[in-house]
C-alpha cells in the first residue's frame, strides 16, 4: 500500500498585489523550493488574500508551513484543512497560480452549491475551485 499524501489548505492576508513583480518573485521562489522538496499545489490570490493548497511528503510540508508562518508577506495565516489524500490533487503543478481576474473565489462560492459553515466542507469547496482553475489553465 502506498503512502498517503499529506496536505494543507490555508488562507492568509497579504499586501502583495496580484500579478505584481512581488507576486511573481514569490511564485518563482515557491516553485523552485517545491520542486526541490517534492511538493505540489495551487495558489489563488484575491482581494488581499492568498488561498493555497500544498501537498507532498509530511516532513517537507511541515518545513514549508513554518516558512510561510514566518514570512511577513503572509499575515493572519488560518488553516482551513490539514490531512492526507490517497493521491495528489495537483500532481502537475509545482505551484499553480490564479487571481481574481481569472475567476473570483468569492463569486464562485456565491454561485456554486457549496458549504461555507463547516470548516472541512468549506476547505473542500475551496479545493474544488482551485482544481477548476488548474484545469482552466491547462486547457
TrEMBL record:
Organism field: Paracoccus contaminans
SMART domains from the UniProt entry: BLUF (SM01034)
PROSITE patterns registered for this protein in UniProt: BLUF (PS50925)
Lineage: Bacteria, Pseudomonadati, Pseudomonadota, Alphaproteobacteria, Rhodobacterales
Residue stretches making up the BLUF domain: 5-96
InterPro entries: Acylphosphatase-like_dom_sf, BLUF_domain
Name of protein: BLUF domain-containing protein
GO MF annotation: an example: blue light photoreceptor activity
Name of one Pfam family that matches: BLUF
